[in-house]
Amino acid sequence: MQSSAEFPRQNNRGYAIFCGALLLLGILAEISAPRQHVFADGDAALKDTTRKLADRVAAIPGLHGPLRLEWHPDETWSEGEGTRWEEALRDAFDRRALPLTNEAAAPALTVFAAETPTEVVLTAKTRVVDRDEIRIVAVLRTSLPPAELPVAPVRLERQLIYESPDRILDATSLSNNTDDGLAVLLYRNFEVAAFRLDATGAAKQSVVLNANLKPTRDPRGQIAIHGNAVSAQLWGKACDFSWDAAGEAKCRTEKATSTAQPAWPADAVIVSPCDDTNWTIAEPAGEPTARAVLRLVPDGATQGSSSTLTSEFPGPVLNVSSEQNQTNALVVARNLRTGNYEVYKITLVCGD
Description:
alpha+beta, single chain
């Protein structure tokens, strides 16, 4: 006859063996189970949408895998947003046992994503034997979590700092702070002159660039400051002078740019003071007689994404130059109401 003291010990031993078996089975199941992507709870609507599309594609009569996924996300989405949707799609097809492959010879399964003002629409297209099969699902944008911003929240501020009835070709600050004055290139009476302005906009010095320039309907120029040395790039000419030395500027013909206007600067970038993210100042598109919208796009995003900052100017934007401290830029625009040419300072400020 077993004693009452031995019975609990035997039960404990059997329970331990049972738990060990369950643990072993769990480990084996984890090893053999297909790898799944992990999504945040906030992506429930996204996962549900991709699951519905996978269900409809898997139900296509006569469709067999493996298929080659061709993913075409909305052009306004950032790379990260497009990747998030693609991973959800692959996970959904995997759950439906519809294998995907990268083999070029495999039948294509093309999925397009498009945003309307109210919805995100997914369209899947594939070919089965001699017919095209198309399946569509849509989800309300309000049910989706906002795309994660890759940058700290910022806002764009601008300030009018100079204006002139003469055409302003370019402007740059004389130091790291525009409060110390500006250097501007002005086009007046078929001549180009460089002006040194104080913080109030009063002219302190001017140098005429007698470069024998060819007449042009769309004069452009860029000015750069290197201490007291100044260089100006014009259409087909380059001029150098110093604020300290009297006399005219020395100009020379630039063969490489003899037929081209100075282009939109490739280094038109502002560095955010909040997280050191680079914001590219995109060249505005539009008519030369219409208001221009300037767009600032952070690294990793595309124009039109939710991260893009915009600012409308009272006329066409003619030029932009990043400042020496890289935290602001100067924008030259023409005011269509007054006819004046204006210089604005634009700055990124932390916060919404």
